[in-house]
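Check the record.
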Amino acid sequence: MKSQFDRSESRPIPAVLGMSNIPVSSGALVASEPRASQSSEIVQILRFAVESKVDVDTIERLTALVERMNASSAATEFNYALAAFQSECPSIPKTSVAKITSARAGVEYGYKYAELDQIAKITRPLLTKHGLSYTWDSDLVDGKVLCTCTLRHVSGHSQTAKFSAPTDTAASMSGPQKNAAALTYARRQALIQVLGLTTTDPDTDAGAPRPITSQQVFDLEDLAKTLSADDRGRFLKYMEVETIADISVGNFGKAHSALVAKSKGGVK
């Protein structure tokens, strides 16, 4: 005697997960129409199961299948939306300059960057167009601000990117100012990462050497924070620049090696 849900039979089920009265045959379900809400679909499954006196194990398997298909469909929609966004989003110009005074060395340095509100102004219309949005969460971990940016799609799928920034810098700021600066920096970098954005200098001279990134500036400044004012001056003269931010990408390795060697006492 066959059970009510024997795999050899074809029984219609309600239009759940965008399935228009498609049969369950050989254990296969085929999605044919746009998804409805997941909760509504599961309710329909339960109603159908109760009316058909389907056993609990079968209900659980069918519900799990609906959830997996929903998740897979949502991920696909997210990927298409992000790809469409990235194909339309231009590079973000770095039009702002950060000026920071080192409390230890007593010198000022700077770097170019794209402000957070500028990034939002350029990306928000395109994100909205493709059903995408983002939020941030932050925490203080081991003296660093850890920021998590979550990118969500209307389908329900999401992905995250994390970025941490130290608050113990050599800049002449109060504690709250350092925390706020680190948070803004971490938010900006996490957003750039999760959206897959590129930031560029304004194209005023296509033949000019490309300067190092803000992260590379931060890395070099971290190595240079123990230098005396005289040593810092000699280092900049050695690199033939006025500030660390002016070092070109091609000379980053040279600058990094020199600072590491100096920190180990290898350079006088």
